[in-house]
Specification:
By secondary structure, this protein is an alpha/beta fold. It has two domains: 36-168, Leucine Dehydrogenase, chain A, domain 1 (Rossmann fold, 3-Layer(aba) Sandwich), CATH 3.40.50.10860; 188-354, Rossmann fold, CATH 3.40.50.720. 44% of the residues lie in helices and 18% in strands. It is built from 14 helices and twelve strands. The chain has a seven-stranded mixed sheet. Helix 6 crosses helix 7 and helix 13 (377-402) packs across helix 14. The protein binds nicotinamide-adenine-dinucleotide (NAD). Nicotinamide-adenine-dinucleotide binds next to helix 7 and strand 7.
């Protein structure tokens, strides 16, 4: 297979591989390797100085056989139609593996949001919605926040949609603030979902979680709740976490010989997931520059920062003690590293299974919006646990039956479910 750095080509290659294993019909493969519908548009935005600036926006709907499309809107300077296509495709597989009745979608605008004032951001969000509102909706396609967008922006978009459609429609978008139609438990959902899948993996591998240790890359939303869950739910110890310091453009690993106190570290972490080094040092933490998190002698590695972190080079640094890698981040392991990990027999919980807790609670948010009745946090987290446990079970059963790598097993489950829904609807 030819190596590619184009995200959409990568998504298509991954799909082709599994389509072949599943012996999918050629026409079905042709349909699924491309999005079913795409929108490209230009958004004029009134800037604070009074001039008008034009931004390019996209919304891609990959597949809605199982239910309305679902996926975030990214505001990023290097956004392209191909990154949006790839992410929309991956959302189809993520929703299918999590067994939530939604399809895959994604949106984007080519913009660096840090260069906009608050009013300009609001104008851009409303402008985006004016372009897509006729083609999205609670029964069609439900966006959410992603890189560069925030709950506040979702609030503006929801308001614009409601104005244009003439009725209050909170279910058009998820990731809204709690009190403004958001769901309790969304903040913790992805990190705790990671923990539920690790718990299930340990059951199958006959590992006692209370005797295990972990090292985590990142200390943002996903990593913080994965660290808290590893201690509180699994009763294991997190030995190290890491983060990227924007000011000195360096990554740091923070560890404690007795295991970190994740709740304490969270209290000294800023909104960008950067820990206060001085405070940590003064309370007995060791701080090292660089990627030390990956070479710790632990049972579990949780990459929960950015993509491509376990690659041909860094995979060699992973200790022989590591039994499980749980991918909290999207795409943290490259294809070359995957090959090495397969040979070493490391058990992989692949990203679109491992981090599906976020989209699962987003789905719960739209269900609650629809009912206009809101669940307690305990109720949300209990339903999340059930969904993640069942998703893990389906993938593990496929892994045992087909004797393939867990990532391939997850793809097989997801693609089979989408194909089945297409058959049931008479599309194929
Ligand atoms: P975040 O911005 O809250 O946190 C990112 C963390 O990673 C920060 O602590 C940052 O310092 C750290 N980081 C960045 N580069 C690093 C590096 N080179 N070395 C060490 N640390 C580094 O982001 P998040 O919401 O926690 O998302 C993390 C990953 O999980 C992303 O891949 C995201 O796409 C994925 N994800 C997130 C969610 C969610 O609900 N938040 C859901 C599914 C997937």
């Amino acid at each position: 297979m030819k190596a590619t750095t184009n995200a959409f080509q990568m998504a298509q290659q991954q799909f082709d591989q599994v389509a072949e294993q599943l012996k999918l019909d050629q026409q079905v493969s042709d349909y699924l390797r491309w999005p079913m519908r795409e929108f490209s548009f230009r958004i004029p935005v009134k800037m604070d100085g009074g001039d008008i600036k034009i931004f390019n926006g996209f919304r891609v709907q990959h597949n809605d056989a199982i239910g309305p499309c679902k996926g975030g809107i990214r505001f990023h300077p290097s956004e392209t139609i191909d990154t949006v296509r790839a992410l929309a495709t991956w959302m189809t597989w993520k929703c299918a593996v999590a067994d939530i009745p939604l399809g895959g979608g994604k949106g984007g605008v080519i913009v660096d949001p840090a260069t906009l004032t608050n009013t300009e951001k609001e104008n851009l969000c409303r402008g985006y919605m004016q372009k897509v509102w006729r083609n999205i909706g609670p029964r069609r396609d439900v966006p959410a926040p992603d890189v560069g967008t925030t709950p506040q922006m979702m609030g503006w978009m929801m308001d614009e949609y409601s104005k244009l459609s003439g009725e209050y429609t909170p279910g058009v978008i998820t990731g809204k603030p709690v009190g403004g139609g958001g769901s309790l438990g969304r903040t913790e959902a992805t990190g705790l979902g990671v923990i539920y899948t690790i718990r299930e993996a340990m059951k199958r591998l006959k590992i006692d979680p209370s005797k295990t240790t972990a090292s985590i890359q990142g200390f943002g939303n996903v990593a913080q709740y994965a660290a808290i869950g590893f201690t509180n739910v699994l009763k294991g110890k997190v030995m190290a976490v890491s983060y990227w310091d924007r000011d000195d453009r360096t990554s740091y690993t923070i560890s404690h010989p007795k295991g970190i106190d994740a709740v304490y570290l969270q209290s000294i972490t800023n909104q960008y997931g950067a820990i206060d080094k001085e405070k940590a040092k003064s309370t007995g933490y060791e701080i090292e520059e660089g990627t030390g998190w990956i070479s710790k002698d632990v049972d579990v590695l949780i990459p929960a920062a950015i993509e491509g972190q376990i690659n041909a080079e860094t995979v060699e640094m992973i200790s022989d003690k590591v039994k499980i890698i749980a991918e909290g981040a999207n795409g943290p392991t490259t294809l070359e590293a995957d090959e090495q990990l397969k040979k070493r027999g490391v058990f992989m919980v692949p990203d679109f299974l491992c981090n599906a807790g976020g989209v699962t609670v987003s789905y719960f948010e739209s269900v609650q919006n629809d009912m206009n009745y809101y669940w307690s946090k305990e109720e949300v987290l209990q339903k999340l646990d059930e969904k993640m446990t069942n998703a893990f079970r389906s993938v593990y059963d496929m892994y045992e039956k087909e004797r393939v790598f867990m990532r391939d097993a997850a793809y097989m489950v997801a693609i089979s479910r989408v194909v089945k829904a297409m058959q049931l609807r008479g599309w194929i």
